[in-house]
Amino acid sequence: MIDDRQRGWALAAFGMLMVSTDSLFIRAADFDAWTIAVVFGIASTVSLGTVAAVTTPEPLWRAARGAPGPLLLVAVLASTSQLAFTGAVNNTAVSNVVVIVAATPVLAAIFARIALGERTERQVIVAIVLVIAGIGLVVSGSLGEPTIDGDLLAVLAIVLFSMSVIVWRRHPELNRPLALAASSAAMAVIALPLASLGDAPWRVFVAAGAMGLVFNPIGRMSYSTAPKYAPAAEVALFAPVETVAATAWAWIFFSEAPSIRTVIGGLIVIGAVLFGTVGNRRTRARPA
């Protein structure tokens, strides 16, 4: 029988595996990020709102009033993070985006120290330096090219995403589906004025709709529940699941092989993450 920490790990791993399909659906939609965000936002609002209505014993407005501050904060962080991620996938190689996403655990450790008072150990500091080096290597290949915008959007996405992990950890009582539904609704509203729904081909509604109705909500629900059972840094450790899976999806379905620079940068990032999390836990567990 698994303990709470292992349950948290399993939820985080499964959640990131499901979320890794986002890049696949965004590329399949092959349209502007704002329109994809609107379709996805509406679909996921319906999906997550239905889950919230079914699973919440009290009226949703009353549940929202129970923790308005954290709910609003999650809505803002999650919606802007998803918008930035969608824009990143549309403006740079999927492999670049997901390698940058792999830095999430280290950022979560930093924010956990600031917001939750968790001490940042020397081994984690070394990992932070290595992660910065790995991201620098990935982004350096885009300097002077249009894809730099996508890489910077990916960095913004992981900063906001890491912050949201801390909020979930600090507020385990927060209604997960309601907060995620609010973030999806906020994303749709923000993107609507810039969307081109009338010009969108059918593939946009199929791909973004499937992403919003099924895959992304399941992934986000699983991942946002994981901090109830495991520390934020350990939950964030599983972000590289998306890195590996999404790179595989892009290679399999779009023949988008990652560059050598991206592979090396990705190995540095993933190695640093493992060094600063799993390796650090083993060091602490070793008898004196």
Automatic annotation (TrEMBL):
Keywords: Membrane, Transmembrane, Transmembrane helix. SUPFAM superfamilies: Multidrug resistance efflux transporter EmrE (SSF103481). The chain crosses the membrane at residues 9-28, 34-55, 67-87, 93-112, 124-144, 150-168, 180-198, 204-223, 235-254, 260-278. Residues 8-139, 150-275 form the EamA domain. One of its GO terms (cellular component) is membrane. Belongs to the EamA transporter family. PANTHER family: ACYL-MALONYL CONDENSING ENZYME-RELATED, BLR4310 PROTEIN. This is Drug/metabolite transporter (DMT)-like permease.
